Structures are given as C-alpha cells and as structure tokens.
C-alpha cells in the first residue's frame, strides 16, 4: 500500500489540504484511496511516537498501526496529513536555520510505516511570509525576533531544510510545491498526494483560488472558463493569472507591513533565495516539484 505523509510546513495552508481531502473522501474511495479523519490517526501516531520514545517500531507494531488507521479496510493508497510531523513551531529556529530537526522528526514517522510504500509531500512558503506568521504566535515571538536579528537573510533557505530531510529518509520520494503557486497547481497537488492521474475528476479544485480572488472575480472566472474552455493547461493558467491581476483580494502572501529588523532589500534577498531554492530542488532526482505549466514551458 502506498502511504502519503504530508508533513508541512506551517503557514502553508495545511488546513486547506485537510478540507480538500475530506471533501473528496467518497470520491477517493472509488479509486482505492483512503483519507481517514485527521483527529483519529493524528492521535494514534502521536501516542505511538511517545511510546517508542525515538526507537523504531517492530514490523508487527508497524502493521498493527496501519491496521488501526485503515479500520479493517485494505486501500490501495492512504493519505495522512500533519504539519507538526516536521517539527513543533517552537522548535523551528534551532541551529540558525528553519526546522533543523526535520530529518529526525519525519524519519520517526516514516518508520511507523516501514511495511508500506511511503511517499512524503509538503508545501513551502516564502520564508519571509513564514516568519511573519510566526511573529503572530505569542509563544514563539521571542524566538522569531531572535532569528530576524541574528541570521543573515542570505542564509535563510528551505533547501538546507530539505537536504536534512533527504539525508534521513534516503529512499522516500518527496513531492513539494510553493504555496504561492497553489492557485495554479492546487488540483494537481491534491491528485498527486492521492496517487491519482491528472485527469481524475475530483472536488475542491478551486479552494486555493477562492482564497485569493474576490467573490465577484471568482464567479466571473468560473463563468469564463465554462464559456471559453482553455485548450491547454498553460492557457488555463494565463486566464487565471489575468483574473488574479484584476480581482485579487486583499494581499494574502508576504509579510504585510514588513518585518521589523528587515528592510525591503532584505525581504527581496529572502524572496530571491526562496525562488532559487525551488528551482534547485526541482532538479533533484528524488523530488517532484509541482510547478505551474507556464514556469516549465520552453
């Protein structure tokens, strides 16, 4: 059985993915994909990790956990989602990098499914947007402010984080996408984690677009696409971008109002590094980066 573990990151709209999977629960079941309610399996996995205390489970223990999650069924594919598997948000800034412990944390979860075909997925977000989000979490404000004061913006990198992850789970394929691209790649991302072909009918394909378009813009886009169906995926993306440019809601991405301690040049540096990280990760043989078709057109 294929098991897709979606492991983060914080502030990359994981709740939207949970909602999309929930809305597709019956639809997925037709294709042998099980997406159980998150509360049940998150509790089971948390308790099992605590019981093992860093040790790997036996194969029998691993099979028992899978059996408990699947509840007697035998699906072809299992979808599980929890951003905390990458690490708690209060541990995000150790060693002057983002999620220094991600490799160990995720490996321990992967080991719970050692009897299955494990795949990982995660959504990244501009580190400036991420840190702006953390600054809004009272219990970790101090750590985030320390990070801003002491870490050179040129050294802030998701690539370093993913390299640590790759080192700890060397045989596990990884799929990732940039949250900023979600309005263009959302349906493909949902299908990918469920191990479904790109032409499989699913629900909730417009969830990401609903968040960034005004209600009027969203309705007009749906009407336009129905009346003038684009002939290619790239053409569809051009239409969506045109509507985003005209009907974009209040800014969703980026640190609105800036981040104290970083000027505009620092934020530009972080964004440029982020874009370079995505491009570099897309060349790794074990990583699939879901990008807009326009970004990959020759």
Strand content: 5-15%
* Class based on secondary structure composition and strand pairing: alpha/beta
- Overall mean pLDDT stands at 94
Count of domain modules: 1
CATH architecture: 3-Layer(aba) Sandwich
| First-residue to last-residue Cα separation | 36 Å
Count up the helices: 14
Q: Assign a percent range to the helix content.
A: 40-55%
Let me know the largest β-sheet: 6 strands, parallel
In CATH's first tier, which class applies? Alpha Beta
Given as residue ranges, the uncertain stretches (5+ residues, pLDDT < 50) are: none
Report the count of strand segments: 6
Task: List the secondary-structure elements in sequence, H or E.
Answer: EHHEHHEHEHHHEHHHHHEH
Walk me through the structure.
With 298 residues, the chain is of the alpha/beta class. It has one domain: Rossmann fold, CATH 3.40.50. 50% of the residues lie in helices and 9% in strands. It has a six-stranded parallel β-sheet with strand order 2-3-1-4-5-6, with helices on both faces. The model has no long low-confidence stretch (mean pLDDT 94).
């Amino acid at each position: 059985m294929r098991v897709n573990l979606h492991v983060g990151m914080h502030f990359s709209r994981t709740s939207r993915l949970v909602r999309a999977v929930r809305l597709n629960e019956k639809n997925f079941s037709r294709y042998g994909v099980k997406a159980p309610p998150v509360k049940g399996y998150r509790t089971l996995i948390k308790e099992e990790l605590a019981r093992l205390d860093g040790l790997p489970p036996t194969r029998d223990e691993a099979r028992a956990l899978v059996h408990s999650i699947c509840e007697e069924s035998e699906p072809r594919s299992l979808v599980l989602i929890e951003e905390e598997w990458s690490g708690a948000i209060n541990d995000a800034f150790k060693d002057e990098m983002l999620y220094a412990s991600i490799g160990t944390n995720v490996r321990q979860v992967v080991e719970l499914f050692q009897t299955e075909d494990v795949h990982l997925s995660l959504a990244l977000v501009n580190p400036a947007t991420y840190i702006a989000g953390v600054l809004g979490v009272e219990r970790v404000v101090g750590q985030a402010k320390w990070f801003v004061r002491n870490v050179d913006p040129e050294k802030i990198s998701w690539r370093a984080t993913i390299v640590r992850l790759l080192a700890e789970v060397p045989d596990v394929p990884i799929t990732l996408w940039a949250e900023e691209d979600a309005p263009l790649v959302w349906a493909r991302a949902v299908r990918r984690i469920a191990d479904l072909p790109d032409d499989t009918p699913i629900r909730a394909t417009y969830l990401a677009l609903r968040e960034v378009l005004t209600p009027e813009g969203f309705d007009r886009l749906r009407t336009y696409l129905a009346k003038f169906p684009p002939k290619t995926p790239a053409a569809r993306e051009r239409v969506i971008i045109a509507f985003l440019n005209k009907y974009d809601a209040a800014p969703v991405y980026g640190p609105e109002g800036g981040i104290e301690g970083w000027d505009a040049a620092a934020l530009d540096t972080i964004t440029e590094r982020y874009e370079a990280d995505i491009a570099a990760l897309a060349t790794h043989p074990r990583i699939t980066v879901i990008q807009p078709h326009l970004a990959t057109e020759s």
